[in-house]
Amino acid sequence: MIESNLSKSFDVHKKFYDIIIEMSSRKLIQDSKFLALVLRHKPQTIGLTLDENGWADIETLLSCCQKNRKNITREELNEIVSTDNKKRYTISEDGLKIRAAQGHSIQVDLELQPQDPPPILYHGTCERFLPSIMRGGLKHQSRNYVHLSIDVQTAMNVGRRHGKPVVLEIDTQSMKNDGMLFYLAENGVWLSNDIDIKYLKVHE
Question: Which top EC class is named for this enzyme in its record (predicted)?
Fold first, then answer.
């Protein structure tokens, strides 16, 4: 009888613990999406100002979040940055500032220097976008750069977010020979300006 009660008590506590963990995980995901919005696209929505290189003072960021009913602690911020599998965010060496590694629609200078890319890079999209891409090339759209991946699987995962995925191969060597520049973001994403269709082909 005692063992049975202990077992039930353990099960109740475990379920409660699992619920807390799930809620905490869900909050971190929501907070990360909110930070992406603020640090990449709309800092003004919470009264935040980024410097010319995209950096935000962390204490100011957290204060602005709190004033807009989005309570994020420094510990939660650190966890978001350290556990993000895409390394979307960078904290400065002195630990005082944060910025998005790439993906901005607002004008910022990420202080990136041109880099020599691998001979082939990949871009993930979906079937419904393919006809327009093959007519007019790859455009950066609302972002500052076209985003490119070093491997097919990563590009496939990107394309899958929008529908049935399609992966494009980018002939970076020909682009480089024609004077095009490539940049490598802090999180390993390759960046370029718009890409003409002559440098593209569908990955088989």
Answer: transferase
Instruction: Identify the CA nearest to 32 among candidates 130, 121, 93, 98.
Output: 98
Q: What is the pTM of this model?
A: 0.76
Distance of alpha carbon 9 from alpha carbon 169, whole angstroms: 56
Residue 177 within a domain: yes
| Digit-coded pLDDT (tens) for 3-62 | 555 555 555 455 544 555 555 678 889 999 999 999 999 999 999 999 999 999 999 999
Tell me the CATH number at 161. 3.20.170.30
Rounded CA-CA distance 153/149 in Å is: 9
- Would strands 146-148 and 165-171 be described as parallel, antiparallel, or unpaired? unpaired
Residues in a beta bridge with 169: 122, 201
The tally of domains found in the chain comes to 2
Q: Is residue 114 included in any domain, yes or no?
A: no
